[in-house]
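ARCHIVE CARD
SHELF: 3
SLOT: left
DATA:
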Amino acid sequence: MRFVAALVLLPLALGACGNTGLRDIRSSAKGPDEFMIQPAKSLQQPDSYTTLPVPTPGQANLTDRNAIAEGVLAFGGTPQSNAEGIPASDVALVQQASRMGVTNNIRQELAETDAAFRKRKARFTQIKIVPTDRYDQAYKRQILDAPREAARWRRAGARTPSAPPAE
């Protein structure tokens, strides 16, 4: 009987030591979420107080960050390129990517579909003895095994130059 109890308790004890990292999509902290706080730019004294823009209540501040412009800069673009539309050098790429059509509200549609999928998968997962990875639990049928997929493509004769070499 002790042996059976040890066989049951040992995996439970070891499973509790697992590191879920960013895959644990539930917050267990009682304090504020530090990822919800957006740092502002540092305040700067203007050259002249008479040339300041008129305040616009409810609108962006001069010290507010612009995530889209920062993303464009991080990927090597210019802040003006976001407002100008598609640069001439990228027209062919955009046409190729959108050749099958474009869904205008794709983000909203995917968010709604994902929320419904996770809700449907979470019906019978509320009662657990040990902590589980909810992300893996919801998406385990959609996980891609990269080495196996690379091997499948190599067997089919496709070139896989960015993949690690076959051993």
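SLOT: right
DATA:
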Amino acid sequence: MEIVLLFAAMAAVGLIMTYVSKLIWKGELPVGMPNAYLVGVVTAIVVGLLDWYVIPAMGFSDTLKYLGVAFEPALSVPLVFWIIKKAKN
């Protein structure tokens, strides 16, 4: 049940941060709009799962795991769009 909630939360974060990224770049995301939401959701889910499993495996506390899952996926979505935009140029 915990993994389902994590997937749902990261999908929501991906959608929200894709919308925020669209506002930052004024609608000029490096991929088309349906693809942008797909890239945002996949990025947030992958980073969220990595944080959920890798941070405890490295020996850090659960508090750091929750902080990583809360902030890192949200910061990674605009970063991935920026990397894609730079790669296209």
